[in-house]
Amino acid sequence: MSYNLLKGKRGLIFGALNEMSIAWKVAEKAHEEGAIFTLSNTPVAMRLGEVDQLATKCATIVIPADATSVADLEKLISKSVEHLGGKLDFILHSIGMSPNVRKGIPYDDINYENFLKTLDISALSFHKVLQVARKQDAINEWGSVVALSYVAAQRTLDSYNDMADAKALLESIARSFGYIYGNEKNVRINTISQSPTITTAGSGVKGIETLIDFTERMSPLGNATAEECADYCIALFSDLTRKVTMQNLFHDGGFSSMGMSKKALNQYDKSFKPCPEKGEK
Known about the structure:
It is built from 10 helices and 6 strands; from the N terminus they run βαβαααβααβαβααβα. The chain is of the alpha/beta class and 281 residues long. α1 crosses α9 (226-237) and α6 (112-135) runs parallel beside α7 (163-185).
């Protein structure tokens, strides 16, 4: 059901790869709600993915750009404003990748060159997007910028690796830039801490299916789907959330507020074995 929440609004959506992508779902919802926007991803991702199909469905264009390159972002944002016929009202940053995770390198033996790439792709790219947009005065007053985060920014999750550090930095950037951009142009900047979701990137995290089962048992409302996350993004892009900024907003069915649930306890009771003493095998 459409409510025309974004009628007349212009935007830019990063990170749509295929139908598994949260950014893909956001683009579909934004189109349904009356927005016009451009799509962007890296040239490699565009070759591997299906984003051209999404562009056709949403009557828009895909502009290739490396979000770690300021020069690429300058061209992307100026071309988006030109194509859409005016300044942007919303931006979605849905970008994340860790070479260490992809290569199975553990956190305690991390490759630091890879680590810097993780931070650049998954967090500093957000700062670069905001900096370029501000310098070009490319976002309208009361515009909204959203980046996708994860609870690993606050809590340790096995095997999430250096992506946890990147998400913590991402959320800090939202607060710092949210203060600056809010003061100047009333632009609001938030992050959404989404439930673990099977996306192309998420499926590369070791034990993701077990984690999803655990969080489903822990969350009073169950895990939030990609479609539900898209709905939340649309709400944050809309004028209904004009005074929400500098927040990390948990969209996880209540998982982030839980200690232990009965469903999780029951699961462990079925196969309970005493933990070995420290030092034992």
